[in-house]
Amino acid sequence: MSTIHMNFKQFGALLSISTILGMNVVASKALAQQAPSILFGPATASGGGCTIDTQTSLNDGRTLSIVLNNMSAINGQRQRCILRVEANIPSGFRAQELQVQYQGDTVVNSGSKGTSFSRSFSILGALGILTTTPISTSFTSDTVINEVDRYSLLSASCGGQGVVSMNLIARSSVGSEIVLDTGDINAGNVRFSFPIIRC
């Protein structure tokens, strides 16, 4: 019997903070120049299912790219990865929403039960307080993965430090494979977005 494995070898994460400013009589270019920067602390990975390969802050000051390695599950094994990231929201701003996009692909051969990818979040601090129930997506045929999750945030804080913890669980049955990698170096395969507004 051939060995089929689920490989998250270069699992990328992109945290993108977009800024929504009040409707003032100011040119859009000027607003873009005044958009506040988000300061990110070092990301950490635990759970035994992954390690962090690279962490890069992009030029817009609101985006953090994270690439994870060494997350794989073979022949029905369950693999788990916990990703934790700190984000410092600028003073006078608050987060409104968390948006997360996942990209990748899965191959399911005839007779296989398929694959699944589940995730949940815990958010604390200046980003608000939110603990989600796990969301699981199952795949029973060859699929290009493009999943988007959205969560409303109730942040009473006007700036400060927030923490996002992301719990990822990947499963593959015999005869199937699921892969998430950084096919697009500008987007990564997981995109976090926190729209923020003035308090």
Condensed summary:
The protein has 199 residues and is mainly β. The chain is built from one helix and 16 strands.
Number of domains: 1
Low-confidence stretches: 1-33, 182-188
Structural class: mainly beta
Largest sheet properties: 7 strands, mixed
How is this structure best described in words?
By secondary structure, this protein is mainly beta. The chain has one domain. The protein is built from one helix and 16 strands. It has one helix at residues 28-34, and strands at 5-16, 39-40, 44-46, 51-57, 63-74, 78-89, 93-95, 97-108, 115-125, 130-131, 135-139, 143-152, 160-172, 176-179, 190-193, 196-198. The strands form three sheets. Strands 1, 4, 5, 8, 12, 14 and 15 form a seven-stranded mixed sheet that branches. Strands 2, 3, 6, 9, 10, 11 and 13 form a seven-stranded antiparallel sheet that branches. Strands 7-16 form a two-stranded antiparallel ribbon. The protein is elongated and about 55 Å long. The chain starts with a strand and ends with a strand. 35% of the residues are buried. Residues 1-33 and 182-188 have low confidence and may be disordered. InterPro entries: DUF4360.
Salient structural properties:
199 residues, single chain, seven-stranded antiparallel beta sheet, mainly beta, seven-stranded mixed beta sheet, disordered N terminus, 1 helix, 16 strands, elongated
